[in-house]
């Protein structure tokens, strides 16, 4: 069992460069309150309060606020530069690509029916592990989905290759089952 001892990064961590660019562009905003932190980080009120507590800042009346300079300083300390986030972004891109590749492979994977040997009895070429037991009834023995598809494929191939013999073999079984009843 693998136990990860590293603390998980919050979901907004990957957006730090974008958050930094936004804060940098907001030159007319000297202070950020909880609502601004919520919008910037894409979090709810409780998480915004936790972020504000970690950032420090000022208390203005009953509200907390953090200065633009202090926010930029803390973002930079978290690794808010593009180069610090590049390995994480590259890893995420590799994971997404691997998942997409697997989805494409699974979607296009073709099942290969197993080849089923034909019966040697008479003129029929019916699969040896399948038999028609009565008119409209068939019994198929198989051990895997691929083998089952192989038997069905063999029936279809027999019908395509020699339809007259295929129809005769089914008619013979139907006649036998009618004489037994």
| Biggest sheet overview | 3 strands, antiparallel
Percent of sequence in beta strands:
5-15%
Which strand order does the major sheet show? 1-3-2
- Topology as H/E string? HEHHEEHHEEHH
Radius of gyration: 35 Å
Helix and strand content put the structural class at mainly alpha
Residues in helix, %: 55-70%
Can you walk me through this structure?
- The strands form two sheets. The protein has a three-stranded antiparallel β-sheet with strand order 1-3-2.
- The chain has helices spanning 16-25, 34-41, 45-55, 68-77, 82-108, 145-161, 163-180, and strands at residues 31-33, 58-60, 63-67, 130-134, 137-140.
- It folds into two domains: 11-106; 130-180, no CATH class.
- With 181 residues, it is mainly α.
- The chain is rod-shaped, with a radius of gyration of 35 Å.
- It has seven helices and five strands, in the order αβααββααββαα.
Any descriptors?
mainly alpha; three-stranded antiparallel β-sheet; 2 domains; rod-shaped; 181 residues; disordered N terminus; two-stranded antiparallel sheet
Topology:
Elements: H1 16-25, E1 31-33, H2 34-41, H3 45-55, E2 58-60, E3 63-67, H4 68-77, H5 82-108, E4 130-134, E5 137-140, H6 145-161, H7 163-180
Antiparallel strand pairs: 1-3, 2-3, 4-5
Helix pairs in contact: 1-4, 2-3, 6-7
């Amino acid at each position: 069992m693998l136990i990860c001892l590293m603390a998980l990064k919050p979901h907004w961590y990957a957006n730090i460069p974008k958050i930094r660019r936004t804060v940098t562009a907001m030159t007319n905003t000297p202070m950020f309150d909880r609502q601004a932190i919520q919008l910037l980080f894409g979090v709810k009120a409780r998480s915004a309060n936790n972020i504000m507590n970690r950032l420090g800042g000022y208390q203005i009346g009953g509200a907390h606020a953090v200065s633009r300079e202090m926010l930029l300083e803390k973002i930079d300390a978290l690794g808010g530069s593009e180069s610090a986030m590049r390995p994480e972004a590259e890893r995420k891109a590799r994971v997404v690509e691997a998942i997409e590749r697997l989805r494409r492979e699974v979607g296009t994977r073709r099942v290969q029916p197993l080849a089923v040997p034909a019966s040697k009895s008479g003129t029929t070429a019916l699969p040896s592990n399948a038999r028609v037991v009565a008119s409209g009834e068939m019994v198929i023995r198989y051990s895997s989905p691929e083998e089952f598809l192989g038997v069905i494929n063999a029936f279809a191939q027999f019908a395509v290759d020699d339809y007259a013999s295929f129809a005769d073999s089914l008619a013979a079984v139907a006649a036998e089952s009618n004489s037994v009843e």
